[in-house]
Amino acid sequence: MVEHRSGSPDHGPGIGPDAGGVPGGPAGGGTGAERPGDERPGDERPGDAGSGVERPGVAGSGPDARWLALLMHAAFFLLLGASLTRFLMRHPGEARTPWIIALSVTLAVLYLLGPVLGSRPTPRRLARLAVLVVVWMVLVVLAPSFAWCAVPLFYTGLGILPPRAALALVALLTVFVVAAQLRLADGFDPNLVLAPPAVAAVATAVFVHMQRQAVRQRELAARQRELIDDLLRTRRELAATERREGTLAERQRLSMEIHDTLAQGLSSQQMLLQAADRTWSADPDAARRHVRTATGIAERNLAEARRFVHDLAPADLAEGGGLEAALHALAARESAQAEGALTVHCHVEGTPHAPLPDRVQSALLRIAQGALANVREHSGASAAGLTLTHLDDRVVLDIGDNGRGFTADPEGVRGARTVRGHGLPAMRARVRQLGGTLTIESAPGEGTVLSAEVPLTTTEDPT
Fold it and tell me: Nearest-5° angle of CA 330, CA 314, CA 332?
């Protein structure tokens, strides 16, 4: 029930001592790719306890891997068909022929099931691999020329089994290949004993190396995806932080705008209406003047509120004429509202080389409004002055009064803060946003001078 050795036609071309190790040769010179289906996209296998890496299989999902897998399929069926044809040509009509044909068909069907069953080492796939190996071994015992078909079995076992089990299977297949070669040879040939194991060892080493390279590439791709996700998350967090900072800055700016306009105007109206209430019976004419003055302030506040809705620019600036005209109008209005109790003068020195930026004009006007409101409410002064000085690289606004003054700390703020102490911090914030400085000089009984200096060549703070 075995093929003849001496003088047997089974020697055939390429199966003699000169071709010793050929069955092992394809294993060493193989493509290094598993059959299609031994690895599918996303069909990963956990690494075995001693491997330290995941076992994703070599086939992969790229076009080159698919072509290599197709080549392995074609090579297997070509080798199987050639081995069966050779047997039928050299042993026609033997009793074992039906068995050889049946086992060959079974081997082909089991091999075709590989892509269907996949590559994870599940019990079903391991059973399919075991049956596949057993059928091949029986074929090799009946017809040694079927040892050629060991090539795909090497890669199937290496792709499905854990490393140690795969190495054991490769060793077993190599033993059968050596035995088949020796049966087909005329005599003992050391090359037939040593070459197949050497080639199988090289093939196994190459396959394992390719597996590990594939794992490293997957890990690198995973790390790159994590880095990209981190980058996107950081960008989203940065954008959210910038939005929050922009919102806070806008809230601060609006609070300063409201304090310097509506709040100050409402405070003045309250004082005037209270004064009118006190003098309504004793001096109706004075009470009416207070009411008219409060009405004028209400009209200005209404204009400011409408301007807030439009573009949050000061109403005086929106009327045209620039900062100088707005300061003159502010001084005249404050003098009229005080009804002789406070006289405000405005003076402009120098000529600007270019129109002042809108932000600078708006900030200086708001500072002047806030400072004069403080003079009116807290200083008890009879005279105050606004001085706008244009220099080559900066503009300076001075607001002075002859009031009672106060003891200022190094920052120029009263030592005892009150609830209504938002004016000076707001002024400082406005000047700081423009890259300038705010200084206050004051002493008890000597009045107060507030100076806001804004550079014209420094980039404005975006905050």
Answer: 10
Residue 22 · residue 14 · CB < 8 Å: yes
d(CA 114, CA 40) in angstroms, rounded, equals 12
Portions of the chain given CATH number 3.30.565.10: 340-463
Q: Taking the CA atoms of the chain, what radius of gyration do you get in angstroms?
A: 48
Dump pLDDT digits (tens) for 414-461.
443 443 456 788 888 889 988 999 999 988 888 999 999 999 875 444
Are 125 and 114 spatial neighbours (Cβ–Cβ below 8 Å)? no
| Beta strand 448-455 pairing with 394-401 | antiparallel
Q: What is the DSSP string of 76-141?
A: HHHHHHHHHHHHHHHSTT-TTHHHHHHHHHHHHHHHHHHHHH-SS--HHHHHHHHHHHHHHHHHHH
Query: Two tokens at 406?
Result: 């106060």
Contact 112, 187 (CB under 8 A): no
φ, ψ for residue 153, nearest 5 deg:
-65, -35
**CATH code that applies to domain 340-463:** 3.30.565.10
Residue 53 has pLDDT above 50, yes or no: no
Q: How many other CB atoms sit within 10 Å of the CB of residue 206?
A: 18
- Smallest Cα–Cα separation from 275: which of 334, 335, 330, 341? 341
Task: Phi first, then psi: give them for residue 249, nearest 5 degrees.
Answer: -65, -40
Backbone angles phi, psi at 250, to 5 degrees: -65, -35
Residue 274 CB: number of other CB atoms within 10 A? 12
